[in-house]
Amino acid sequence: MNSLRPPLSSQVEFGDAFLRGMEAAHAIGSPQQFFVWLRLHIHRFVPHELALCRMDGGRGMRRTRMLNCVPLPEALKLSLADPDAPVWRRLLELWERGDERALQIPLAQLEAPGNRREGDTAQPLFAGLGEAGFRSLRVHALHTGLSRGGPELLFAFVSQQPASEACMADALTALELWVPYLHFAWMRAEGGAQLASRRQPVGEGSALSARELQVLSAVRDSHANAQIGELLGISPLTVKNHLRSIQRKLGARNRAHAVAEAMARRLIA
């Protein structure tokens, strides 16, 4: 007999992955570790190539984090990094109109001329995301009590993949479950930001060559080995060897860990 309930093995796997993500959140101590945590744990539940986070601490103390796994135009990055950009007000408005629950919005819907309102300057940013290859975004926010008025912490996960109805429902359910841990992880990352920047002075102990820094920067921009080789004029095998050397020198377990470690040491931006 067919059943809509997933097999027990899938349920166990889901639960184990969720517990691993919860446990890993307690080890976060820097924005770079927050980035790795999103990619290694949250991405499985809420697929994304771009994560946007905005905190309003009250009294005009607003800050943002933009964690992109694909290259973005510089103008778009600057606009999204502005905590007072109109895109943030628009996302909060949409979230509030959705009964303050996690929601998914097709970017095509936000870009449509019929949705343009007088004075709405957020639409060009949504159009820019569409031009960069993104198709949908998922939004959730929460009240933390840090400021009066609207929600203080907002997360937007932007994806290049159009999701099916079933995948959309699963991702939104997961986002509802994860938002308290997202808040917890964000606060740990922000609280440890200054400590992370002091872990190692610029240049100290850096045995990375100029070529290795080029390779690592390309990895940070989510290029595959073949793409990196083409960009730098070297073979994919040479890129692989550089990455092995980089991981050994930084004590990193994998590519993402190497990028996070290099960013924490301020070897790459």
Question: What does this entry look like structurally?
Answer:
By secondary structure, the protein is an alpha+beta fold. It folds into two domains: 188 residues, Beta-Lactamase (2-Layer Sandwich); 65 residues, Orthogonal Bundle (Arc Repressor Mutant, subunit A). Helix content is 53%, strand content 12%. The protein has twelve helices and five strands. Strands 2-1-5-4-3 form a five-stranded antiparallel beta sheet, sandwiched between helices. Strand 1 and strand 2 form a beta hairpin. Helix 9 crosses helix 12, helix 10 packs across helix 11 and helix 11 packs across helix 12. The longest helix is centred in the middle third of the chain and has 27 residues. The relative contact order is 0.14. The N terminus is likely disordered.
Brief write-up:
By secondary structure, the chain is an alpha+beta fold. It has twelve helices and five strands.
